[in-house]
Structure formats: structure tokens, C-alpha cells
């Protein structure tokens, strides 16, 4: 069990009534609570959401506060400080004065910094410190006025050749306030991508999807991500740039295995972080499974850190892997399903 969950269980006597667990890990925490605690989960991680549903745990996969009444909330600190600000404000605009907000997190995950963010809504008390984690409690002393999700957006403009795009990103989404180097290296090559049915795996704020749609409004683009905030950001980016929403398919996925079949192309700046931890499973699975999701002449285009050893994984499946670019610490890799050697 996640050590943060173990700390919550140590102090379970503080929990009562309808309790919403926000950003909780996919483990046995909810199943281990006393019967008088009516627990449900709010998560924006689709893989975790599916895990909760499979365990018959009430789960909400969304970016807004779930439509229900809660007596208490337990927030598991997210990696992003901006995302925690959004969560705290949203909680403080839905609970009532005096209701308890609990905050739990790892020391290396910024729990002490997060506890300071909590104190803008009341006096926080540390209940426990164990397993390199801390648990804080705060009776809500100050309510917040509800804000539109759009009020939390950050926007920035990028220029590629003669094309201009405004990127919209919600808190916690990868590269929320600037274009990351890897995607910047990849973008000039998107004009070479085969047209048709295209998947953008790990779509983030929709930079790749939006540029593909800008180049050809008739593309059928499948924007895939595990994160509900990323999918919503991609939608905002399309709306902001007047792009064709009818040809955009926003699809939550647990991993690349959930991607559509018979694709003309897969384009990706694949994710390799899970919370505060590094995890290459998603991107390595993409390299191994990509060909099985492509048409006979379909293409794979990915950008990755130079030190990541993806070419051999791609070569095992495609028989070849071409390095289209190697600059600023990133490689653009290309493979065609219909080409061998």
C-alpha cells in the first residue's frame, strides 16, 4: 500500500461521513476504512479511475468538483503547486465553514510547502508524520468564490514557419506556460506526417494535435491522454484557435494499448513521468505496440531525450528506425510499418 495511504489509515478515527479522496493512489485505502466512512474518489488519472471502478469503489474522473455533498475531503498532494491551488480553491468553494480538509503527501513530494498553501483557508495542524509522509488537518475558516475553469488557464503563443498557435493549458498539464524543447524539435517535421487518421499519444495541452489540425483541417485526430486536465486543455486549445472540433476525438486512455486501430500515423512526445516519479513504461509500450495499431503503410513519429534507448525497441517491431533530427538533447525518430530495413 502507498505510504501516504498508510498514514491516513493510522489516523482514520478523524474521518467520518461522506469523505471525498482527491488524487488518491490506486490501492486498498478505501477498502481499509471503517464502515461508517462513506468514501468516494475524485481522480483525473484514467488508469487509476479504471482501477477504482474495477475494485467497486465510487470514482469520479473529471476536472471539476464532483456533484455531491461531502462532509470532509482528503487531498493527496499533486506534483504541481498550481494544480494544488486549483484543488484547494475548488474545495473551499464547495464545502461549508468548519468542515475538515486533510492534506497528505510525501516530504520529497512537497508536503510542507503544500501545508503552507493550505493555511490561506484556515489554521492547519499536523496530525502525523510517518513513512516519510505527513498528514495535516484544517477546519475550513474561509470560503472561496467559485471560478470558471477557464479562469485557471495559462496561454502562450508559438510560431512554426508561417503558422501561429495559441496554446491553452490548465494547472498540472505538461509545459503549462511554455513550449517544451522536445516538442519544439518535433514540430517542423509534422508537415511530413502522413495524412488521415492520426493519434497523438500523451497529447498534453494539444500542441501536436492542434498543429496537425492547422496543417490539414480534414485530419481525423485522436488526442490520447491519461490525464483529464490534459484532454480538457487540448479542447480549449482547439477552440482558441478556431480548429475543427468535429474531427477531434478526445480519448482518455490507461496506456497506449487503448489507442485506436488502423491508424495512418502515430505522433508523440511520449510521457515518462508519473507524479514525482520517473516511469518509462508508457513510452516503451508505445514503441512495442505502435506497429500493431497502424495500417500496413502507417508511420510512427516520436521525439525523445537523446539518452533514451528507444531506437532498438522500434527496430525490433518495424525492422528499421530513422533518426530525423538530433538536436538540443532530443531525437526525432521515424519508422514506417510498410518499410523493412
UniProtKB/TrEMBL annotation:
The UniProt record lists the keyword Ribonucleoprotein: no
Highest taxon listed in the record's lineage: Bacteria
Domain annotation Methyltransferase small N-terminal: ranges: 5-156
UniProt signal peptide: none
Span of domain Methyltransferase small: 165-333
UniProt entry keywords in alphabetical sequence: Cytoplasm, Methyltransferase, rRNA processing, S-adenosyl-L-methionine, Transferase
Location(s), subcellular: Cytoplasm
Reaction equation(s) it catalyzes: guanosine(1207) in 16S rRNA + S-adenosyl-L-methionine = N(2)-methylguanosine(1207) in 16S rRNA + S-adenosyl-L-homocysteine + H(+)
InterPro entries according to UniProt: DNA_methylase_N6_adenine_CS, Mtase_sm_N, rRNA_ssu_MeTfrase_C, RsmC/RlmG, SAM-dependent_MTases_sf, Small_mtfrase_dom
Matching Pfam families: MTS, MTS_N
CDD domains per record: AdoMet_MTases
Molecular function GO labels: 16S rRNA (guanine(1207)-N(2))-methyltransferase activity; nucleic acid binding
Gene3D superfamilies the UniProt entry points to: Vaccinia Virus protein VP39
GO CC, any one term: cytoplasm
UniProt similarity note: Belongs to the methyltransferase superfamily. RsmC family.
Function: Specifically methylates the guanine in position 1207 of 16S rRNA in the 30S particle.
Subunit and partners: Monomer.
Name of protein: Ribosomal RNA small subunit methyltransferase C
Source organism per UniProt: Acinetobacter junii
Amino acid at each position: 500500500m502507498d505510504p501516504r495511504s498508510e498514514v491516513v489509515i493510522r489516523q482514520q478515527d478523524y474521518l467520518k461521513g461522506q469523505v471525498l479522496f482527491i488524487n488518491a493512489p490506486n490501492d486498498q485505502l478505501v477498502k481499509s476504512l471503517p464502515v461508517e466512512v462513506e468514501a468516494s474518489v475524485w481522480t483525473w488519472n484514467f488508469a487509476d479511475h479504471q482501477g477504482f471502478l474495477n475494485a467497486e469503489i465510487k470514482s469520479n474522473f473529471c476536472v471539476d468538483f464532483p456533484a455531491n455533498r461531502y462532509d470532509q475531503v482528503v487531498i493527496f498532494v499533486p506534483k504541481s503547486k498550481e494544480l494544488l491551488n486549483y484543488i484547494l480553491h475548488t474545495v473551499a468553494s464547495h464545502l461549508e465553514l468548519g468542515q475538515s480538509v486533510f492534506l497528505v503527501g510525501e516530504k520529497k513530494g512537497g508536503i510542507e510547502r503544500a501545508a503552507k498553501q493550505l493555511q490561506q483557508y484556515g489554521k492547519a495542524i499536523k496530525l502525523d508524520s510517518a513513512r516519510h509522509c505527513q498528514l495535516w488537518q484544517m477546519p475550513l475558516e474561509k470560503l472561496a468564490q467559485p471560478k470558471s475553469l477557464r479562469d485557471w488557464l495559462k496561454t502562450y503563443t508559438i510560431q512554426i514557419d508561417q503558422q501561429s498557435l495559441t496554446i491553452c493549458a490548465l494547472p498540472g498539464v505538461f509545459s503549462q506556460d511554455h513550449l517544451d524543447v522536445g516538442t519544439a524539435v518535433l514540430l517542423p517535421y509534422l508537415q511530413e506526417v502522413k495524412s488521415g487518421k492520426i493519434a497523438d499519444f500523451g497529447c498534453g495541452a494539444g500542441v501536436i494535435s492542434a498543429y496537425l489540425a492547422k496543417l490539414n483541417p480534414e485530419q481525423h485526430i485522436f488526442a490520447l491522454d491519461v490525464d483529464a486536465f490534459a484532454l480538457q486543455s487540448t479542447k480549449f486549445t482547439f477552440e482558441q484557435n478556431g480548429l475543427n472540433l468535429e474531427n477531434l476525438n478526445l480519448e482518455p486512455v490507461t496506456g497506449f494499448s487503448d489507442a485506436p486501430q488502423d491508424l495512418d500515423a502515430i505522433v508523440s512526445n511520449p510521457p515518462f513521468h508519473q507524479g514525482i516519479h520517473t516511469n518509462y513504461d508508457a513510452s516503451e509500450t508505445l514503441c512495442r505496440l505502435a506497429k500493431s495499431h497502424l495500417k500496413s503503410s502507417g508511420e510512427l513519429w516520436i521525439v525523445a531525450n537523446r539518452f533514451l534507448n528507444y531506437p532498438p525497441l522500434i527496430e525490433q517491431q518495424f525492422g528499421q528506425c530513422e533518426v530525423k533530427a538530433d538536436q538540443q538533447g532530443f531525437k526525432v525518430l521515424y519508422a514506417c510499418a510498410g518499410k523493412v530495413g
